[in-house]
What does this fold into?
Amino acid sequence: MTLFIVRRLLQAAFVLLMVSLVVFFAVYAVGDPVELLVSADASAAERALAIQRLGLDRPAWEQYLGFLGNALRGDLGRSFVHGTPALELIVQRIPATFELVVLALIVALALGLPLGLVAGLNPERRVGRVIMTGSIFGYSLPNFWQGMMFLLLFSVWLGLLPTSGRGETVDVLGIKLSLFTADGLRHMLMPALNLSLANIALVIRLTAAGAVEARAQDYVRFARAKGVRHSRIVRRHILRNILIPVVTVMGLEFGSLIAYSTITETVFAWPGMGKLLIDSIYQLDRPVVVAYVMLVTLLFVVVNLLVDLLYAALDPRVQVLEPAA
Amino acid sequence: MSTRIDSSTLGMMDTPLRAAMLKRIRSRPTAIGAGAALAVMVALALFAPLLAPQNPYDLTGLSIMNNRLEPGSVGMNGVTYWLGTDAQGRDMLSAILYGLRISLVVGLLATAGAAAIGITVGLLAGYVGGLVETLLMRLVDFFLGFPTLLVALVLLAMIGRGVDKVVLAIVLVQWANYARLVRGSVLVERRKEYVEAAQNLGFSRARIMLIHILPNCLGPMLVFATIQVATTIALEATLSFLGVGVPVTEPSLGLLIANGFEHLLSGEYWISFYPGVALLILIFSINLVGDRLRESLDPRRRA
Amino acid sequence: MTNTIRRACAAACMTLAFAASGAIAQTLKLGLSSEPTAIDPHYHELTPNIALSHHIFETLTRTDADLKIQPRLAVSWTNRDDRTWVFKLREGVKFTNGAPFTADDVIYSFCRILNNETAVSASFTDPIKNMEKVTKDGDHTLVIVTKSAEPLLLSELSQTFIMSKAAVKVDKVVFDPGTRCGVTTPWPTVAQFNDGSLAIGTGPYALKSYTKGGAIELVRNDSYWGEKPHWAELRLSAVPNAGPRLAGLLAGDFDLIENPAARDLGRIRGNERFAHVVRPSNRVIFLQLDQREESPFVRSDKGNPMRDVRVRRAMSMAIDRKAIVQRIMDNAAAPANQFLPGEMFGAMPDAPELSYDPQGAKKLLADAGYPNGFQVTLHATNDRYINDGQIAQAIAQYLAQIGIRTEVDAMTRSIFFGRRSKREFSFSMGGWGSTTGEASSFLRQWVATTDKDSGLGLSNYGAFSDPVFDKIIAEAIKTIDSGKREALLREAGKRAMEQMSHIPIHFESTIWAFRKGIEYKGRADQMTLATDIRPRG
It folds into this structure.
């Protein structure tokens, strides 16, 4: 087991190396950051100085080796645009995205589980069909469009919710969070809903499918035959059977949302990581983009590792702990 | 760009029984409606050049003097624009018909491409195991972390703009999801008795993989893929919104919606509304048909 | 039903608003279209950065809303000769740390710009590098001797921010870049400004808090020497997307926003709670035509047709500028007949109109030997200028009508600018705003034959070259006498238009939208300055 985890971590290090290599050169393949950073009427001397300061005067492979050397010491470079350490920029933005995603997933579970259960327990009735069909709405319209509709409805037309930003924050263990102030929560509501719509649909579908499956299982039939109350069957037998896949998938979604809440954050000007990524990509801010993608890859590697371990724990037939090759 | 849907557990299935499936589909009025709608959409897309009053890609036929006309208005050239015109003076009806084509092509091709690569990789990784699995799954990790926007930008810069490039970008970022899903299913399947039996009979690895394991993993894949067609079309819209999608002169439904996004506050609702409706009908019908397909494939509900 | 809900809600919101109004009435909330990247005023020469800096820091000179030079920390100035400037500095000015403002602070600030190690690009260094000597004559007189004649010095100084020398340890400040100007401690870093510790200026506001990606809060500097600003506090937040930004104004989250889309103004016009201002800017949108023999995206019967001035004129005549301004720009732009609006320094006051004449264009094209036109690709950005993607398509539509089959390739600026500077395009759409407010800016940058050493023609990616023009512009930019310089610049502009070196399309206008009860007149340089935003009524 330990050996397995150690081996996976070593592999992860290799993946990170590859990611850094590819992203490093991918940014340069898009365009020349100097063209975006230095104004067109800058003199040749000014331009040369900027190129030298950014380290872009050296050959690309040398730049990469320099980056690697620093990265091993925990220094992922300074942002071209902001002049501050890339890692610091990203880390500062983590809480905002994190709390938004947490709220989005809570909303998704709070709405998705009951609706999915109703749909799954009544698959042949109208209510079940309406829920299943309605859930398609959740992922059929582009995110940015839904977000704008929310803005028009809740802010412009009803005047209920603020349109952008994080609102008031409060320090929790030194981290600024909006989740615990009334004003902050008002700011979070729309972006969180925007982020959760597709996940509500996903939870509904997962729950419904699980419920349908569970209902047909022998132990449920047996319980029903024994005369166990309906509500108890749902709670004790069906719900438990559903929760595992739902929680697993939500765990995976958590990673994806943290990494790619870009559109929601752009529409609602939410100061999170996603907005930073999109800005950095457009400005060809290589250090930030490389650091960001490496962090995200690490996140996925860890999540995948956990999922593999979970598979093994849940289903003894699955053998992920393959013997050393 | 924001959602990667994972539905490994959406329901495991046994071998399909085609007759029962068709019977079930026939007994469902919504499924028939959805199927009919889908057929109509596909037909509209196929015959767009014959049906559309205008070729929306031909710039010589457009005039900005006819731009942003309300639905039903008559342009300076005497043509009636039933669904209005966009900022370029494009007839929205024609743009939607042609856009439907591109969206369908992008949705289907990208999903098929990603599924094909993902299933192959997942199957190999799950069944062969060992070093092959390690290498392939780390490749999956590698691709999962890549931001779609960056992939699209790099492709745009290196090989230029076009519908095929957008398909390629989407395939590149999505195949890894399929691979992860399929591998999960294969890990479960390969320990089952029927596989052991096949192994004992001395069947080749390829045969076991393709004929025995693959069909049993296809069920959840099919469900995932129907959702993915929708997600893919929405993803293409998002790329267009970010300015790295299909060419501006060849709008897809997504690009039309993204363009219309800029006109939402000005009251020119038709520029994004009608493409939005077309997209909704398309995605609803694909999904309803997909849902029924899944139900009819599900042995437990065939009773 | 819905109306009842709205009314009930409105009542509730009003109550809340009244309860809170006492506290927030003096806070002005601004919705910016892009975020400043640092508090450090020497960090990067970007409009949002400079606009923010003008609140906290000050400059020797300033430009007013029409880009005319006005005194600020310098009360007056004289020229002893072409290279020597004497500035009289304002007395009784204090930094927010209590230190008095003297000539030493100016010299220190110049030194810091030259030694700004944490800045990404070396913005602001060029004018200072051209200074041979900077000396003081008492605490409030400054003498600057430039290496070569620098007619634009006053304009450059209006973006050169002064900070307090108290930030570093220095016994005697001398302008000597070789010896660090006498500074013995490390130079200030961008981080020290961002965390507020060195955000010390003489400006009307002081920094209260700064969160990257979040809001910037400023508070009124009560010891400010000049007219006290009306707003006790400012809250600046950036919302890059125009739709959500306008939604923020409509919902009451902002008092004033920058750059709403012109097409959305209808929503404000019909609403008595809001007002807006449209201000012509000097940013020109233009087409650049490749003059090389072999051009990558041109397909024609013989050579590169755009080398022929008749073809360039025909292309210009094919474009209906009024229609573009009206149908695509919603009138928030002005058709351009030259490269700088007529009232700016050195522009032609009466440039002949570039009228729409497709028949004439076809004839001219035939005269040049291209009766069947040719084929070309127009490269443009789709996220840099207002409606850029749409304008490019409209231009292609017009050119197609005279037989020039034009494909449009619109791309993000991240790709576009790099490719353009590698001269990969045949025909591209660009934009240029003259920060100096002088015609020289465009002409020397885009039209002059490229000469890296003298900094001429740096953006002349199409390799346009006209010796007659080059001679006039070379003379103009070293002439200090403003009357003579203006005449020369007009002559240069006339020559460029005759040769149709580039095809101007229109001048963008900048729009600000705000709630009733406040007023902003806007600025030609597109900056949003809270000190100019006043309550009305």
Q: What stands out?
A: The CA atoms of residues 109 and 249 of chain B lie 21 Å apart. The interface with chain C takes residues 59-60, 62-65, 67-68, 87-89, 153, 156-157, 160-161, 243-244, 247-249, 261-268 of chain B (CB under 8 Å). The beta strands of chain B are 73-74, 80-81. The two ends of chain B are 40 Å apart (CA to CA).
